[in-house]
């Protein structure tokens, strides 16, 4: 059956210089035709529906055509001609002889694992090209992926973005295909490159299972599942399950970048054994699609061509390891900063994604949550010579390139089986509390289960994914926000006894409409919760003002003894759509508050007095201006796995990461010291508050640099690098400090570093569904460290024995 359908009587015989040979398909934006130029070039011509062609649409479509030309790459269909100002706008792209992934799977079932790997790398390479041009696809799905003999091709990128801002979106309409949307797209929140990565995960799962993860039911039901439910990945091959799970992380900043995806696939690819990357049945379908390239509309299919042998490497070229089963993609490099208009502002829009799935409410997970990239600042040039104005790194102990790794593997003390992936671990005394998105358990120091599973459905929009802030523990009680009711929209703060697992009490959240709720931590015996909310009423002090609505980030403080507290919605008259993030220090009477505009601009920090509930001071975020102008910093900024105690304070100072680490005096907001200029990912203070440990990605993204800084002065005590290449690379670093040990995790591996000099004592392979993201089911103390292992909750000694 030919992929080409005859023209309808209403179809034009020609568009621009292209004679139309037939229809390739149609959608909500218009129809796609096979066209041929006078010189014989065959193209796919998209004709926009006339009713969409108002002046506002034309302006956006014109900009998208210009950007799409720049995004053309090896595995996207390049734009060859367009007329956004014609009677009806149209665009022509090179015709890719292939079949859609949706049609291929419908005809012949799921793809084999080798083809899935090639599919993942090919689409990721296409996305990197598209994102480098400043575009977001917004509708990546099986129907927009073409399978061709030379690999997968991504089509129809950028068109949905051209419609944004017109009448179609003025009332909050969500554009895209519900079952393949990201959580932030499903609630009409800010959408950027990471949204396409989520859609890639859903598309790969479809190709592996033969059915979509979120298919079925009304669109509203599909969107609810996308936002709140964890998908069943049991049908995805084990070798790809972690990668797909990482792509499907609910928070944008937890997803790998397209470049990281290509690297992960290349490292795990099998050696090339033939020129074909698809099964024979699909190759036959592709050859049939290619038959329309002949001059006749209904040509006789040519005999199947022999697969082309891969080109031999140049003589003397070094071996590069496994290759992909189609010519490896060579993504276009991101454009140099001078070539991008308004670089600082634009990069904030592209990479400053709001955390969580309910960003439309005006809230988010706050300041400095940027997804890891592959670049980074390095005090040396590529030739190894120091840059002008900079000195050598000094003694070997403070050299960030000093190797810290080890070959010693730790032996687990015990493993406790749990039935679900863990999203957070808490510890008090000799008791460990393990939490999934649905339940919680408690174990003693020997691994014996004390109680559980206790049903505890977490607030998923940011709870399990917004810094691992499902719950906190203190005074023999676990405090966590839990969803209730058939709709799951009602939320309460719940207290559970640590010794028995019995529910002590529940208190409704102070705002009926609350999103992105996180239990941040405890200070002076009070529990602190943040999120976004809206409320309305009459101001008794200003009755003429009438009924008003306040919405934005909120802070809720509750005294567990009296179950009473206070709450405040923090607004900023200078910021239209503020996002805020609460950070709870280890001691004192001030909370730290970091806020920004939805697009990442207007970054501020403030101190909130817990006694008066008023801001002590507020000022622009130190280093924010430099971070806004730095491509590397935006890609590599802090991800904040936790927001309490040693992760935000040390020695009475607030710890704030922007372009580097800044120690801020909570009394007046003055910067006491700043670290070396390094785009750090995460920080943690030692238990005594005298040392701050920080981690950053090395420029190659195959190592993690760790720094120990004096908490009083910021002086570097030691530094070094942990090589992640042997462990497969990738993964965002997470740090904890306990028992004279610095624990580092990244990419599903754990290292125990000596706090005195940073040298690794041992390493251990963990099992985590976020091998390319952040491991938050991780807790240290009492001479042990706990994490999610291959068979459940695993405990290891600080000594590794």
UniProtKB/TrEMBL annotation:
One Gene Ontology molecular-function label: ATP binding
Region (Disordered): 295-341, 376-408
Biased composition (Pro residues): 298-316, 324-341
InterPro entries documented for this protein: Kinase-like_dom_sf, PQQ_b-propeller_rpt, PQQ_rpt_dom, Prot_kinase_dom, Protein_kinase_ATP_BS, Quinoprotein_ADH-like_sf, Ser/Thr_kinase_AS, WD40/YVTN_repeat-like_dom_sf
UniProt entry tagged with the keyword Nucleus: no
Signal peptide: none
Keywords: ATP-binding, Kinase, Nucleotide-binding, Transferase
Highest taxon of the lineage: Bacteria
Ranges for domain Protein kinase: 18-278
Transmembrane domains' residue ranges: none
Entry binding sites for ATP: 46
PANTHER family associated with the record: MITOGEN-ACTIVATED PROTEIN KINASE KINASE KINASE 20-RELATED (PTHR43289), SERINE_THREONINE-PROTEIN KINASE YBDM-RELATED (PTHR43289:SF34)
Protein name in the entry: Serine/threonine-protein kinase
Upper taxonomic lineage: Bacteria, Bacillati, Actinomycetota, Actinomycetes, Kitasatosporales
């Amino acid at each position: 059956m030919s992929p080409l359908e005859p023209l309808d009587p209403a179809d034009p015989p020609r568009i621009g210089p292209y004679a139309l040979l037939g229809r390739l398909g149609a959608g909500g934006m218009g129809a796609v035709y096979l066209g041929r130029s006078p010189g014989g070039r065959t193209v796919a011509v998209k004709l926009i529906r006339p009713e969409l062609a108002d002046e506002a649409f034309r302006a956006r479509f014109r900009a998208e055509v210009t950007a799409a030309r720049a995004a053309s790459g090896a595995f996207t269909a390049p734009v060859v001609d367009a007329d956004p100002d014609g009677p009806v706008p149209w665009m022509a792209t090179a015709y890719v002889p292939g079949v859609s992934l949706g049609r291929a799977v419908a005809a012949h079932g799921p793809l084999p694992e080798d083809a899935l790997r090639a599919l993942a790398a090919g689409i990721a390479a296409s996305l990197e090209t598209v994102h480098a041009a400043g575009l977001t696809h917004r509708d990546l799905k099986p129907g927009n992926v073409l399978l061709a003999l030379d690999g997968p091709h991504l089509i129809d990128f950028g068109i949905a973005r051209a419609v944004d801002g017109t009448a179609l979106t003025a009332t909050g309409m969500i554009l895209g295909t519900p079952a393949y949307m990201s959580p932030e797209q499903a609630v009409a929140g800010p959408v950027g490159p990471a949204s396409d990565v989520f859609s890639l995960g859903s598309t790969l799962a479809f190709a592996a299972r033969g059915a979509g993860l979120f298919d079925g039911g009304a669109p509203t039901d599909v969107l609810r599942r996308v936002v709140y439910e964890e998908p069943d990945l049991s049908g995805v091959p084990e070798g790809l399950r972690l990668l797909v799970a990482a792509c499907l992380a609910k928070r944008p900043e937890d997803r790998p970048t397209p470049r990281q995806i290509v690297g992960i696939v290349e490292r795990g690819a099998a050696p090339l054994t033939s020129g074909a990357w698809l099964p024979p049945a699909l190759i036959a379908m592709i050859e049939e699609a290619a038959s329309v390239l002949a001059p006749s509309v209904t040509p006789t299919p040519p005999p199947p061509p022999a697969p082309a042998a891969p080109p031999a490497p140049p003589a003397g070229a070094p071996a590069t390891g496994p290759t992909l089963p189609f010519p490896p993609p060579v993504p276009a490099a991101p454009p140099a900063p001078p070539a991008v208009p308004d670089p600082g502002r634009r990069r904030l829009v592209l990479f400053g994604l709001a955390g969580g799935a309910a960003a439309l409410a005006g809230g988010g997970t706050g300041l400095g949550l940027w997804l890891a990239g592959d670049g980074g600042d390095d005090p040396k040039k590529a030739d190894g010579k120091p840059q002008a104005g900079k000195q050598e790194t000094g003694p070997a102990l403070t050299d960030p390139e000093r190797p810290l790794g080890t070959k010693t593997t730790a032996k687990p003390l015990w493993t406790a089986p749990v039935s679900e992936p863990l999203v957070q671990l808490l510890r008090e005394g000799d008791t460990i509390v393990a939490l999934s998105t649905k339940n919680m358990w408690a174990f003693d120091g020997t691994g014996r289960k004390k109680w559980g599973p206790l049903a505890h459905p977490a607030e998923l929009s940011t709870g399990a994914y917004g810094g691992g802030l499902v719950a906190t523990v203190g005074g023999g009680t676990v405090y966590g926000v839990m969803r209730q009711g058939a709709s799951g929209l009602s939320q309460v703060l719940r207290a559970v006894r640590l010794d028995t697992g019995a529910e002590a009490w529940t208190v409704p959240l102070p705002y009926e409409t609350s999103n992105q709720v996180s239990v941040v931590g405890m200070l002076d015996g009070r529990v602190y919760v943040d999120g976004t909310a809206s409320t309305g009423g009459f101001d008794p002090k200003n009755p003429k003002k009438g009924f008003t609505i306040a919405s934005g980030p909120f802070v809720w403080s509750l005294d567990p003894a009296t179950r009473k507290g206070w709450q405040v919605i923090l607004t900023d008259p200078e910021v239209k759509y503020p996002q805020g993030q609460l950070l709870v220090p280890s001691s004192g009477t001030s909370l730290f508050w970091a806020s920004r505009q939805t697009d990442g601009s207007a970054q501020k920090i403030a101190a909130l007095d817990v006694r008066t509930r008023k801001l002590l001071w507020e000022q622009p975020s130190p280093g924010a201006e430099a971070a806004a102008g730095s491509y590397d910093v935006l890609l590599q900024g802090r991800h904040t796995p936790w927001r309490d105690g040693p992760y935000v304070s040390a020695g009475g100072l607030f710890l704030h990461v922007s372009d580097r680490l800044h120690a801020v005096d909570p009394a007046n907001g003055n910067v006491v010291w700043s670290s070396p200029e390094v785009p750090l990912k995460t920080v943690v203070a030692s238990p005594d508050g005298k040392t701050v440990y920080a981690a950053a990605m090395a420029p190659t993204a195959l190592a993690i640099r760790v720094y120990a800084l004096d908490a009083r002065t910021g002086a570097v005590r030691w530094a070094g690098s942990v090589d992640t290449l042997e462990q497969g690379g990738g993964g965002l670093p997470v740090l904890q400090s306990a028992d004279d040990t610095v624990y580092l995790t990244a990419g599903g591996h754990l290292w125990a570093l000596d706090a005195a000099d940073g040298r690794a004592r041992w390493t251990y392979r963990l099992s985590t569904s976020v091998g390319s993201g952040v491991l938050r089911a991780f807790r240290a103390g009492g001479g042990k460290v706990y994490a999610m292992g291959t068979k459940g909750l695993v405990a290891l000694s600080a000594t590794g024995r």
